[in-house]
Amino acid sequence: MKRAWFLFTLLALLTTLLFSADITGKWKGMLVGADRDRELTFDFTVKGEALTGTVSGMLDHAVEIKDGKIQGSAVTFSILSEYQGQAVKLLYKGQVSAGEIHFTIGNEEGGWSTELVAKRSS
């Protein structure tokens, strides 16, 4: 019985790893804002379910991705940005499909959110 449970668990883990979307590389999307539009560049590295990398275009420098995960086609991570001189944690939740990532971006408190579609950059 223990052997069957071990094999089932191993198979489930391998299936998850095999079917996780490979988004390693650069992606670009347009963030439409009230004051101006910004082109964001995502530079992703995926190892298993761990997602790392940077986001450029929010500030005058690239910001590091924190708490990044990819499970199947679902992508989540956060970055530390800035608004009116104050640090703001932004949460990204995305869905990978057909060469695009559809993101919902929001602040930690839930008082603001927006949508963004990123496409793989060559």
Structural write-up:
By secondary structure, the protein is mainly β. It has 1 helix and 9 strands. The protein has an 8-stranded antiparallel beta barrel with strand order 1-2-3-5-6-7-8-9. β5 (66-71) and β6 (74-83) form a beta hairpin. Residues 10-18 have low confidence and may be disordered.
Largest sheet: 8 strands, antiparallel, barrel
Helix % is: 10-25%
- Structural class per helix/strand content? mainly beta
The neighbouring-strand order within the major sheet is 1-2-3-5-6-7-8-9
- The overall strand count is 9
Gyration radius, in Å: 17 Å
Number of helices: 1
How do the SSEs run, as a string of H and E? Answer: HEEEEEEEEE
Identify the overall geometry.
globular
Query: Approximately what portion of the residues adopt beta-strand conformation?
Result: over 45%
Distance between the termini: 49 Å
What integer is the average pLDDT?
87
pLDDT < 50 stretches: 10-18
Features:
9 strands; mainly beta; 122 residues; eight-stranded antiparallel beta barrel
